[in-house]
Amino acid sequence: MTVKIFFCYAHEDEDLLKRLKAHLKSLERDGLINMWYDRNIGAGTEWERQIDKHLATAQIILLLVSPDFMNSDYCYSNEMKRALERHMRGEARVIPIILHPFHWQIESLKTLLALPKDGEPVTGRVWRSRDEEFLNVVEGIQGVIEELATKTSVSSSTMEMMTDSKASKLADMSKIGEITQMRLPPRRRASSQTFVSSQSTVSVSLDVMPNFV
Is the pTM of this model over 0.90? Predict the structure, then answer.
């Protein structure tokens, strides 16, 4: 199963996005993920339609949260809003990734588990190196990928069992119908046999009647 990942970010944070993509590349090479962001849009393409298309089909949506992200009307009011709507409907998993130290715990995000661990910013002082920060992010994303893969596998197995059960029941019903058809004689034959039987009974009755003359 290949999981589609959509990056929602402000262009001011593109350097950090590229570094994150580099850390996620090993998962992509293993066929576990397929990454997409707006720089994949080709020249002459309707960029907004492409963004809408990939945002609507991604299974994981990464919000690269920063002051510039919050300051962008398009990121905040369009992409993030639609991402959270899909998350609430259970269609996608939204993961906030905190890039810089700032107040990001707004009402719409504070209920989501953010990365890195404990919502510590990628550029914060907690981490010994930038690679350590992104390693923590990638491990968190990988955990979500494994969870989605497990759910998909269970759903597929359940559907197969339901399909097999339905097919088995239909086969049993078909066999019962065939057996019933074999046991029940046609109506015309049943009527004919009854008539003959009645005649035989009458004939026998006349033969055994005593002669009173």
Answer: no
